[in-house]
Amino acid sequence: MKKGLLWFLMLFIPVLATPWLFTGSSNVQVLGFPLWGFLALVITVFYALFIAWSLHAYWDGLTGEDDLGNTENSSCTDVSQSSNLDRREDA
Amino acid sequence: MPETGGAGAILGTGGIVAVGLYMLTLIGVGIWGRFARKEVSPPDYYLGGRSLGFLVLFFTLYASQYSGNTLVGFAGRAYRQGYAFLVGATFMIAVVGALALFAPKLQRLAAKHNFITPGDFIQHRFGYRPLTIAFSILGIWALANYILSNLKAIGHIVEATTGGVIPFAWGVVILALIMVIYETLGGMRSVAWTDLIQGVILMVGCLLLFVIVMVKYGPMTEVAKRAMTERPEIWQAPSWTGKMTWFSTIVIFFFGVSTYPHMVQRVFAAKSAGSLKRSLQFMAFMPLVTTLLIVTIGIVGAVQFPGLSKGESEQILMIFLNDLGAGNAWVGGLMILFLAASLAAIMSTVDSALLSLSSIFTMDIYLPLKPGTDWKRLTYLGKGFSWIIMALMIWLAMILPQTVWRLIELKLVFFVQAAPALLVGVLYPQIKAKPVYWGMLAGVIVTLILTILEMGFGLLPAKPLGVHSGVWGLLVNFGVLMYVARIQRTIRE
User: Fold this and answer.
1) Which of B131, B236, B363 sits opposite A24 (nearest CB)?
2) Is the dihedral of CA B424, B426, B428, B432 positive or negative?
3) Is this complex's ipTM strictly greater than 0.90?
4) I want to staple B30 with a disulfide (CB 3.0 to 4.6 A). Which of B190, B218, B488, B492 is the partner?
């Protein structure tokens, strides 16, 4: 799964839990919850499972191989503004 | 009949002694943490020497994510909003969803480059001091507000449960002292180990309360029947504005709470990638056994005890306990457990936020000004900062007028503007510093304008179209970020 798709799903699945299609009141109850609330809970449980599965299946992909974002990558590198870390190592 | 501490006391003298012993245990754990230290250095003090294994890491993440708001605020909101506050479980899981995206890479980078604060990562990644400073300021704002609001809550809880035997001010001072003592003794180790105790108490407290409420007032199918007829307003699906608020709350928790500095530092403190991975996998399910249970209790309360004011609804768990019969010895024990769970939820958040705040002052503000400072001195300075910050917070908790408190409650809508820096920093290496910086500034300005228009002039509702001002700010933040990044790319090409 691509990084972008994983990003999308992580934010999209909980948004799905919002009861967009339900309005007003209904007498339908499932296990003591209104139907819209029960469906929201089902999606929420699925979301928890999806997160746990994603961490299991894509951990290596999520850690990445690249050592991104050191100051060489930045267009705003200012040698006089070395990182805290560099200062600490100097110390 | 338990002896009472004072007029209207919920906790008897025996209960006060039991809670006192619990507090002494926390200091004992602090001393234990002090003897377990490997060296006097900021990584050892602020990150426990990056030695947190699965069990401790999981419980410190858990206890830090759940504050006093979980027990008091969430139950009260569920009472007032009814089933619509089921979103509480969703947004707490969304926090873990966001962590799952950036924590794996951030943990690897932190171990490789010895990051101590989130500001270290921002500076290393973007190399742009103004961005690091802006990020740190937003972090300080969020953490200071977190400490302040929780200290105030702790004072009220102590005063209410002891019937005024321990007044608000003394409650704040005593518990703040306990926290700063065990934190100074062992730093992150003490905080994480006490979080383990506090996390277990919080989890057991929530489960026990839920089971008792269900046995006595349930089952939920009966509650549902009564809700449909007696409280139809809490049964029906949220309005369009309510749905937008539902969606907006998920967004603000996804981006904001996951990037809180004390949460990020727990990622840095992981012993290994494996311990972090397992902790996050378990964390994904914790809202189902914590938030969801508290929300359900609040819904049952809405049917069982209708007509409470907003302030009274925040006491719904206490109302349940009182209704169960204050004279029964087992209810007395349950009240002690409830108080311990409330204190645990608050203290585990305050101590984490305090340690994180101390690290930001020491490593992100002091060290760049005095780059030659050795690690031993930095560690002692950090401990000193913890005491100064806590003293300042105690003072502010006592003197701030109510009008200022309303502003302080707005921590998340402003802090969420810092989230893109961390997320984009970890996940999108092609984005440079300036798009992130201008996006953050634009997001803060938009949020500030919306807040002023609402609070200062009453021209806007608190959530325009049901969406938090911080989410409007975040939209502008990402928009500016992408626009400036595109301009930079065009210039380069």
Assistant:
1) B236
2) positive
3) no
4) B190
